[in-house]
Amino acid sequence: MELTNKRILVIAPHTDDGEFGCGGTISRAIEQGCRVKYAAFSAAEASLPKGAADDTLRIEAQVATKQLGIPADDLVIYGYSVRRFGEYRQQILDDMLGLRRDFDPHLVFLPSRHDTHQDHQVISAEGFRAFKGISILGYELPWNNVTFDTAIFNVLSSRHVAAKISALRCYESQRMRPYSAPEFIQSLARVRGTQVGVEFAEVFECIRIVLPLNSSTIC
User: Fold this and answer.
1) First and final CA of the chain: distance in angstroms?
2) Cα–Cα distance between 59 and 170 in angstroms, integer?
3) How far apart are CA 87 and CA 65, in angstroms?
4) What are the pLDDT digits (tens) for 71-127?
5) N or C end of the chain, less CB within 10 A?
6) Which residue in 62, 59, 10 sits closest to 39, CA to CA?
7) How far is CA 84 from the centre of its chain?
8) What are the domain boundaries of the chain?
9) Residue 126: which of 115, 140, 110, 102 has the closest Cα?
10) What strands lie across the sheet with 35-40, from one edge to the other?
């Protein structure tokens, strides 16, 4: 996978989904000179622990994405209500079209088409519409996926996995979730790496690959 000097858009239904799905890849891409923009469509205020401030996940996302090397200006957090994205499909599509117009990405990461979370399904479906003509990869969130097409493996180093773990540790309000444990994050990266004969990797579903006339690379 060619990840050099590209504009990459990571779309997260909720803050932290992008880090879970492709945090190591974000770290590697920035290291290779890519500009990565991160757009989260909800700060999931309704899912916060009792007593937490409403802006908790917004603040945690700012710190987490900085850990991966994303500048503050390249983080966008919209205000959609968690578990209600289906009510706002057109507005979400319009926001995505705005991202396409303003950022003009070469490659988009978003949730798998097989993700069972209702908000993730909306983001995946509307993203497919909004970014027509652009390569799209679906990221893995095993706790939501009934099935997953392990089509594209992005090889990671230990430092990329460490950056992903460091970013996810910034989400103090989500520490109770078993899939946020560093041991799980590292083990999943090791499993995916083993499948292709390397130490670590992240895997992606191939939703769409566009090969430009002036390029021999896949994205």
Assistant:
1) 7
2) 9
3) 28
4) 999 999 999 999 999 999 999 999 999 999 999 999 999 999 999 999 999 999 999
5) N
6) 10
7) 20
8) 7-208
9) 110
10) 75-77, 35-40, 7-12, 107-111, 135-139, 200-208, 152-156
Helix (H), strand (E), coil (C) string for 128-171? HHHCCCCEEEEECCCCCECCCCCCEEEEECHHHHHHHHHHHHCC
Task: Identify whether the C-beta of residue 15 lies closer than 8 Å to the C-beta of residue 77.
Answer: yes
Global pTM reads: 0.96
- 90-110 burial, b at 16+ Cβ within 10 Å, e below that, comes to eebbebbeebbeebebbbbbb
Q: What proportion of the chain, given as a percentage, has pLDDT over 90?
A: 93
Structure tokens at 46: 């309704």
Task: Report residue 163 as tokens.
Answer: 């950056």
69: left (phi > 0), else alpha (psi -120 to 50), else beta?
A: left
Q: How far apart are CA 204 and CA 77, in angstroms?
A: 23
Domain topology for 7-208: Rossmann fold (3.40.50)
Mean per-residue pLDDT of the chain: 95
